């Protein structure tokens, strides 16, 4: 079981872990809020454009392709989680580069738990930040910038080395 940390001390610790690397972005829209589905809908994908926006309040930004399931689901759910990928779990980058396969306890074959916001937190990831959406910037380009207020931080392994783009040689060329 992972411990959820209180803000802002742990938020600062988490921000020091940001790299120019890769993350798995997850979100969930509850079934009762959907007109086309009878079950909760989970969207997940690999992203690489992530940044700190503010210390007070604690805000982060993530860029998501306009045509993706993540874009639509975050826009409707208004929550998301950034799952930080550890160097030992680089296979997550490719595993979440396409459609998301959901079973009762796994996303694309990787176990998860529901976080405080309802967003899935991947057990294979050493750190996760959960956010409530506060703003969406629709750029002229092919991505939407989602700005989220950090509501919860889950630290599973504070000493884990996180995967960076330099480490994997830019094997993934964009965001989902």
Automatic annotation (TrEMBL):
Gene3D superfamilies for the chain: Electron Transport, Fmn-binding Protein, Chain A (2.30.110.10)
Source superkingdom: Bacteria
* Protein name listed in UniProt: Flavin reductase family protein
Q: Which keywords accompany this UniProt record?
A: Oxidoreductase
What residue stretches are annotated with the Flavin reductase like domain? 15-171
What are the GO MF terms of this UniProt record? Answer: oxidoreductase activity
Q: Which Pfam families match?
A: Flavin_Reduct (PF01613)
- EC number annotated for this UniProt entry: 1.-.-.-
């Amino acid at each position: 079981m992972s411990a959820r940390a209180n803000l802002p001390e742990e938020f600062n610790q988490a921000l020091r872990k940001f790299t120019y690397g890769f993350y798995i972005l997850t979100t969930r829209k509850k079934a009762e809020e959907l007109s086309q589905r009878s079950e909760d809908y989970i969207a997940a994908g690999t992203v690489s454009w992530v940044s700190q926006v503010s210390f007070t309040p604690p805000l982060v930004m993530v860029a998501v392709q306009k045509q993706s399931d993540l874009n639509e689901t975050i826009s409707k759910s208004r929550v998301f989680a950034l799952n930080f990928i550890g160097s030992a779990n680089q296979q997550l980058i490719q595993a979440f580069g396409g459609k998301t396969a959901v079973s009762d306890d796994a996303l694309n074959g990787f176990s998860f738990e529901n976080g405080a916001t309802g967003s899935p937190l991947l057990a294979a990831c050493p750190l996760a930040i959960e956010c409530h959406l506060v703003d969406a910037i629709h750029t002229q380009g092919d991505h939407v910038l989602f700005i989220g207020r950090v509501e919860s931080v889950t630290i599973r392994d504070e000493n884990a080395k996180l995967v960076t783009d330099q480490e994997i040689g830019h094997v993934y060329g964009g965001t989902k």
